[in-house]
Specification:
Oligomer: single chain
Distance between the termini: 69 Å
Largest sheet: 5 strands, antiparallel
Number of strands: 10
Length: 227
């Protein structure tokens, strides 16, 4: 038989965990029905089931304070939510603050740009890449007030007014945390050839599974010939 100490380490009972899971799931919402096929496909690709009816948004403070007399469950919640009761302010809506975006490449190391971008930098070339080179975008951000569920990104690229690329992906679900999160997107490879060289414009957008937009960044970059 297991001793009392070992039982505490095992965490709360399966019944309590089931209740906690239900409460955490209440903050996982879907947005409204999409108006066209492209948006509907985006919605499905983010793992949201069609026809799902969201539950009421529950503040982080309520989630922590419920069952607060159960010491084992309280510690379990703090571990899962990544915060302490003193961090919760009762605000319902989650908030994501982006601090910086970096481009990482073997060609030049890492170039960091603080966010939001200064007005005098909007429209300027933020970075230059060689054709056929591999690179990654790295983001630093903070989550405040409540859980952000299903944070996704889309990065759309144009050249000469024509869309030439679009990448999408899931970052995940994040709880409020004292320390900023750092997330590196999937590796990309720049195209090669005469037609690939030149200036590009792009738009990087971040939304959660309730279609809240936390940042929309427009930027430019250049692809040059391999030396």
């Amino acid at each position: 038989m297991e001793g009392g100490k070992r039982g505490d380490e095992a965490g709360p009972s399966s019944e309590k965990l089931g209740e906690l899971s239900e409460k955490l799931n209440e903050v996982c919402h879907v947005g409204e029905d999409e108006e066209d096929e492209d948006e509907d496909e985006d919605h499905r690709s983010n793992g949201v089931a069609a026809g799902f009816v969201p539950g009421p948004l529950v503040s982080l403070k309520e989630q922590i304070e419920k069952d607060k007399d159960d010491d084992s469950l309280r510690r379990w919640k703090q571990k899962l939510l990544g915060c302490l009761e003193s961090d919760s302010d009762g605000q319902m809506e989650p908030e994501v603050k982006f601090h910086s975006i970096s481009i990482v490449s073997d060609d030049f190391g890492e170039i960091n740009t603080p966010l939001p971008v200064d007005e005098n930098q909007i429209g300027r070339v933020l970075f230059t890449l060689k054709e056929g080179s591999e690179y990654r975008l790295k983001l630093t951000f903070s989550v405040l007030h409540n859980i952000v569920s299903g944070l996704t990104y889309s990065n759309t690229v144009w050249k000469g007014g024509l869309q030439v690329d679009q990448s999408k992906g899931m970052l995940g679900t994040f709880a409020p945390n004292r320390e900023p999160y750092e997330h590196t997107l999937e590796e990309e490879t720049t195209p090669s050839g005469v037609l690939a060289r030149g200036l590009y414009s792009a738009r990087l957008k971040f939304e959660d599974d309730d279609k809240r937009c936390y940042m929309e960044l427009k930027y430019s970059f250049e692809i040059k010939r391999q030396s």
